[in-house]
Design brief:
The structure is a homodimer. Chain A is an alpha/beta fold. In chain A, 45% of the residues lie in helices and 16% in strands. The longest helix of chain A is centred in the N-terminal third of the chain and has 17 residues, at 74-90. The structure holds a DNA duplex.
Chain lengths: 335, 335
DNA sequence: TGCCATCGTCGATGCGCTTCGACACACCGA
DNA sequence: TCGGTGTGTCGAAGCGCATCGACGATGGCA
């Protein structure tokens, strides 16, 4: 193993000088700098992460807590993780993966073992039991999602309330007077998952404000559940002309089922989805959608974290405005 | 911060004794053990990861290199990551996420900074440029996928060659004499991605051995590409009665398109997919599939890694046998 | 009763790095 | 010419832990 001493010897300087060349915390003459940098390159020196962490109490590692239900949301979670790790590397940090399943204890462990410098937490619930513990942690924490009482924690997410309203607005402007929301599975609502309840709120407020007839249902993602959900909605409101789908997993089955029923999209029924753009474009009828900006959220989460690490102490709550893209699946209802 | 000294003082023993209680590397009297464990619990002591790494040259971290093309394979990658992190935690290790994009340099960095104890590498190519470097690394390395020359590296994966054969065998036994393979996008083949070429080989061998008429196409995952691909296949062989789909992303579009063409599944055309079970069950016509056992591969990869870390030095190559589940999408062809 | 082996505990050392205070030297103005 | 002010470099200390050799106590056996 190549150590800082080896580099120092090779360059004919003191180890501390090498350290200062690397960190830039003291001024170094151009001559010495060149000498040291050459030695570093020649020897292939990389500082020992553990030693560095021990001496400086900084690990250059960010911990990310992800939900590991592999049946749900995968595309979004994956995209988020991808952008987070990329953004973290851009700031010379690595990403450590934790699972929600391990619960609060894992957060304690990571914090008090000094494994990571900061925490990013996904899949936040409205009354998330982890929030109090996170507050006590005195590590920078950024939540992806917004709990009811973020207290002193930073948050970033799509503005799902606005997204819910935007869907309704789009449909209402096309002339729809009777629409339904197909939401995530009942379990998601039961857990009080932040984005689900916020979206529903936006949907409800907007339909009320515009005096649009509205129904909403939680929907599991099996084909049978989708089909039953549609039965139910059409029975409750035979005049239904539009669907808002806040449940990506359900889309293929839903579109199949609509066709089975002889309902054409968008001629007989309009469909607007909340999903990544790539998914919206993947279907035979390209879907009008509100994009889930997983990539931007991931990047923002990292940026906010880095800001906290740099000493920026006031927590921020950042809600990204929804972006609705009109494609082929929405149209004015037939008379 | 609570240190080992604090615990030692609280328990009235020497720091080294606390260390031995934790590691179990020397025998400790029951009385002392209880004393120490109580103090640990009372103080909420967690060893400092950096200090531990420095003193013992072990980090208890596994690095996982994932491909971050978020458009492809997401479900499989996600499931794999999920099981890997869970398995790693079961062995008291954490998981660090690296991206393939960073290339070989990232592997060097991680190895020589002693950030992780071992590497697991996904998305291996037949002639993967990372292999030589990984060999030189003197860290345990486990590949997910099998390159042409694994040399001294451990590998684990689904036996895609057998999977390709199994698909053909199933269809042939149903009586199909003319089948086509819809594979991953051209870019995947161009990169020489291990699983794509191995599956194709199994498909080719089996169709030849059984004297079945066969076509195969790479297929991008846009709806247009799928449609064009089907046009092409049906033109090349109007008597086509079955499709093998080794491209999960394409399934929703493909099934839509078949219906548009008036081709019923399985009455007019059989479809067998290589995809996770959850995805197979999600469609209106439940799909016969060969499962991608991402979860088992992830677990196995970790187990193999732990074995290497425990001193088990001979590299293993482990290919998991394919599991084909018959559902509704395959049937005997009509005369 | 005395000796030796065994078991359990302790103290010291060093892992590789950052950081702080000290210091040598050059340069400026008086 | 001399004191003063930076600038660039050095040496030492210490971060928290694992590990090794040493050592005291205990018990068995002769």
């Amino acid at each position: 193993m190549v150590t800082i001493n080896d580099v120092a010897n090779a360059a004919g300087v003191a180890p501390s000088t090498v350290s200062y060349v690397i960190s830039g915390k003291r001024s170094i003459s151009p001559k010495t700098r060149r000498l040291v940098e050459d030695s570093i390159r020649k020897l292939g020196y990389h500082p020992h992460a553990g030693a560095r962490a021990l001496a400086s109490s900084k690990t250059n590692v960010l911990a990310l807590v992800v939900p590991l239900r592999t049946d749900l949301n995968v595309a979004v979670v994956m995209e988020f993780v991808a952008s987070a790790v990329t953004a973290a590397r851009a700031h010379d940090h690595d990403l450590l993966l934790l699972t929600k399943d391990e619960g609060p204890a894992a957060l304690q462990r990571v914090a008090s073992s000094a494994i990571a410098d900061a925490l990013m937490v996904m899949d936040v619930e409205t009354a998330d039991p982890r929030v109090p513990m996170l507050l006590a942690l005195d590590l920078p924490v950024v939540l992806i999602g917004v709990p009811d009482h973020p207290a002193g924690l930073s948050c970033v997410d799509l503005d799902f309330t606005a997204a819910g309203s935007a869907c309704v607005a789009h449909l209402a402007e096309l002339g729809h007077r009777s629409i339904a929301l197909i939401g995530p599975s009942p379990a998601v609502y039961r857990r009080g998952t932040s984005y689900a309840t916020r979206f529903l709120r936006g949907f409800d407020e907007a339909t009320k404000a515009r005096d649009v007839r509205a129904e909403s249902r939680a929907c599991a993602h099996s084909y049978e559940a989708v089909s039953a959900c549609l039965d139910d909605l059409l029975a409750a409101d035979p005049g239904l002309t539009a669907l808002v789908v806040h449940n990506e997993a359900v889309l293929p089955g839903l579109l199949s089922d609509l066709r089975h029923r002889g309902l054409r999209v968008p001629e007989d029924i309009s469909v607007i989805a909340v999903c990544p753009d790539s998914m919206a474009e993947q279907h035979a009828v390209a879907l009008t959608n509100v994009a889930i900006p997983a990539e931007e959220v991931g990047t923002q989460a990292v940026e906010m974290t880095m800001r906290r690490l740099a000493g920026h102490t006031t927590p921020e709550v950042r809600l990204l405005g929804p972006r609705l893209t009109r494609r082929e699946s929405t149209a004015a209802p037939h008379a």
